[in-house]
Design a protein that fits this description.
Structural class: mainly beta
Number of helices: 1
Number of strands: 13
CATH topology: Porin
Length: about 230
């Protein structure tokens, strides 16, 4: 647990350093900027590092937000923004576990899934690379890190007929993922363009706490999203 806390502390320091660096770049660079809005349907699932706890399928979700790009060269820009993401996943344990809800605790027998529904506030930091415009189309890729803050966490336990109960005590409030995005921008004239893309994300930090009798595991949150947006 102590090593995990030290790791999280280091990640938070690295994230803060990146935020400061990007803030300096965005405030000092004298290049054009691009604003955008996006709505991304997504599929998310968990992965674990022990056999006693395993993922049990994917869930549909959604990510809605704003993007901001500051160009330091014609085809290169620093990207950031803010978005609200709804994602989740299912976990099954081979042992009896206790799930800590806000108002009560529940005993979950082996083999019965717990369905997590999580809302993140996301602050992406990335580097965007793009081609010259070919006809009406520009191809791009965006690589970077996504600091995340959990703002809501609920869970279903179908075997106990529990639905949408607050399970924030089971979740870590801070996380960090990397993202890899590729897609196209279709010009509508001037600086306005439709955006279509595909993105993959994977969290670095365990999203769950090892409360009570929970096994010491690492649960990673992975996401595949489909970008639909407009740049201005």
């Amino acid at each position: 647990m102590i090593q995990s806390q030290k790791y999280i502390s280091r990640v938070q320091k690295i994230t803060l350093s990146l935020v400061l660096i990007f803030s300096s770049i965005f405030s000092n660079a004298q290049q054009r900027i691009s604003l955008g809005i996006h709505a991304d349907p997504l599929i998310s699932w968990f992965s674990t590092d022990i056999n006693e706890v395993r993922p049990d399928g994917a869930r549909a979700g959604f990510n809605f937000g704003l993007t901001f790009n500051k160009y330091f060269a014609p085809n290169y820009s620093f990207s950031t923004g803010i978005s609200l993401m709804r994602a989740g996943g299912r976990l099954v344990s081979s042992d009896t576990t206790v799930v800590e809800f806000t108002k009560f605790k529940s005993i979950v027998l082996p083999g019965n899934p717990v369905v997590y529904k999580i809302q993140y506030l996301v602050f992406p930091l990335g580097l965007k690379l793009q081609t010259n415009q070919i006809g009406y189309v520009t191809y791009f890729t965006d690589l970077g890190l996504d600091p995340k803050i959990v703002i809501s966490g609920k869970a279903d336990i179908p075997s106990l007929r529990i639905t949408d109960e607050n399970v924030i005590n089971e979740l870590r409030m801070f996380n960090l993922s990397y993202h890899v995005t590729a897609g196209i921008e279709y010009s509508l004239g001037g600086t306005t363009a439709l955006v279509f893309g595909l993105s993959f994300e994977n969290n670095f930090i365990d999203i769950t706490k090892d409360n009570g009798n929970h096994p010491a595991d690492k649960v990673s949150h992975k996401m595949l999203s489909f970008r639909f947006g407009v740049n201005f």
